[in-house]
Amino acid sequence: MSLFEHPEFDHHEEVVFCHDEESGLKAIIAVHDTTLGPSLGGTRLWNYSSSAEALTDVLRLSRGMTYKSAMAGLPLGGGKAVIIGDAKSIKSDALFRAYGRFINSLGGKYITAEDVNIRTSDIDIVAQETRHVAGTADKAGDPSPHTALGTYLGVKAAAKHRLGSEDLSGVKIAVQGLGAVGYAFAKYCRDDGAELIVTDINEETLERAKSELDATVVGLDEIYGVDADIYAPCALGATINDETLKQLKCKIIAGSANNQLANPKHDKVVKDMGILYAPDYVINAGGVIHVCSEAADMSLEETDKRVRDIYNTLDKLFARAKEEDRPTGELADQMAREIIANAK
């Protein structure tokens, strides 16, 4: 199968395969659309089972970034990158500097930031080879706090429409993944009175959630079937699939993970099940809004306002979806494409 026949290829402008033998770098950069501005999206470091799996991921993620920036009203296009390998063993200054040189060769068409297994300190090394980065320690910094805040506000918007009130007191939320974003999001919800049911691969983090957030801990595969009002996927994507949908008992799906739906058809499936879905690239846009303060010279005051506007964006989306009796994801895609088409 060629790239152009790949099921996730969506008229991407550019896909770059990067290899540096000396440092061991194997990466893919996907630039989806630059109509609204240079493509921005984080770099994910993951131990993919194959390069084909990595390609699928980066194509989907880059398209999501285009829609995310459009729906957030940002002067940015969508791109994404993945580095293939085990984060515990392959990280090195040489690898990140080699990666920076590849980014620099694109001449500003792609701006990178941190994502899964990439830290601000890693981006600082990339920045030694290119200025086309965002989220460096001495400027915008870590975007995860704003991602968590936006996700929390998005959950409140969803609760207003599906549960009748944005007040989370007594609302049961199943949080899958307690990384930097997931844990901060869970704390926001707990401070608002929510009851937490959590899971994560890190036992130390789970113990912390038990003691600090009074959370109930369940196994990795148990989280789908728990009795909860809201399922919040905050780890990797595709956790909403044919098998897990059979187990869900929730009324809302709203979390910070990217590509939550394993297949676009699940958008209608969850609607038919009576579940309100907060499209991932709308609810988790806080991170890209945050790094936009560096990439597009946006003030921190404007950044905070745009993050808080995620609530209003979802409020309007949910209302329109109900009025038109349409799946929320399908409608969000249409709205994003309209924004881009109008710009063209």
UniProtKB/TrEMBL annotation:
Keyword Nucleotide-binding: yes
Gene Ontology biological process terms from the UniProt entry: amino acid metabolic process
TM stretches of this protein: none
Cross-referenced InterPro entries: Aminoacid_DH-like_N_sf (IPR046346), Glu/Leu/Phe/Val/Trp_DH (IPR006095), Glu/Leu/Phe/Val/Trp_DH_C (IPR006096), Glu/Leu/Phe/Val/Trp_DH_dimer (IPR006097), Glu/Phe/Leu/Val/Trp_DH_bac/arc (IPR016211), NAD(P)-bd_dom_sf (IPR036291)
A Pfam family that the UniProt record links to this protein: ELFV_dehydrog_N
Binding positions for NAD(+) per the UniProt entry: 177-182
Keyword annotations of the record: NAD, Nucleotide-binding, Oxidoreductase
UniProt-recorded Gene Ontology molecular function terms: nucleotide binding; oxidoreductase activity, acting on the CH-NH2 group of donors, NAD or NADP as acceptor
Active site: 80 (proton donor/acceptor)
The UniProt record lists the keyword Glycoprotein: no
Origin: domain of life: Bacteria
Span of domain Glutamate/phenylalanine/leucine/valine/L-tryptophan dehydrogenase C-terminal: 141-344
Its job: Catalyzes the reversible oxidative deamination of glutamate to alpha-ketoglutarate and ammonia.
Similarity comment: Belongs to the Glu/Leu/Phe/Val dehydrogenases family.
Record protein name field: Leucine dehydrogenase
